[in-house]
Amino acid sequence: MSALSFLNSKYDPDNTDLTWHNFLRLSLMELLREGEGFSGKRPLGDSGWDSYLEDQLSEHNTNIEAVVNTIFYGDKNDVNSTLGDAITIKNYFR
């Protein structure tokens, strides 16, 4: 498994529409919108997100650094991907 598989996995199995990719994108947008009023404890109104994060990172055998690097620089482990053209911030934060 990889950071890319983590990003495409479900944030909460009970909510089939929200992936980690979308959760992180929405959290970043909320942070930028709220500024100093942003709640890191409940970024989208849900506490407990950090335990979901730890569990999913472990399940996908990855870490947060690999996830962030995949978002910003692409999946360097994907043979069909090249730095900057496969999975970039442009693709993830539309």
Q: Which spans of ≥5 residues are poorly predicted at pLDDT below 50?
A: 78-90
Assess the beta-strand content as a share of residues: 5-15%
How far the N terminus sits from the C terminus, by CA atoms, comes to: 25 Å
The largest sheet, given as strand count, sense and whether it forms a barrel, is: 2 strands, antiparallel
Which strands sit side by side, in order, in the main sheet? 1-2
Query: What are the secondary-structure elements, in order, as H or E?
Result: HEEHHHH
- Measured as a percent range, the helix fraction is 40-55%
**Integer average pLDDT:** 75
How many separate domains? 1
Structural class: mainly alpha
| CA-atom Rg in angstroms | 13 Å
Structure annotation, total helices? 5
The shape, in one word, is: globular
What topology does this entry show?
Elements: H1 3-8, E1 10-12, E2 15-19, H2 20-34, H3 49-59, H4 64-73, H5 89-92
Antiparallel strand pairs: 1-2
Tags for this model:
globular, 2 strands, 49% helix, two-stranded antiparallel sheet, mainly alpha, 94 residues, single chain
How would you describe what is shown here?
With 94 residues, the protein is mainly alpha-helical. It has one domain (3-92). It contains five helices and two strands. It has a two-stranded antiparallel sheet with strand order 1-2. A hairpin with a 2-residue loop joins strand 1 and strand 2. It is globular and about 35 Å long. Mean pLDDT is 75; it is low at 78-90.
In short:
This protein has five helices and two strands.
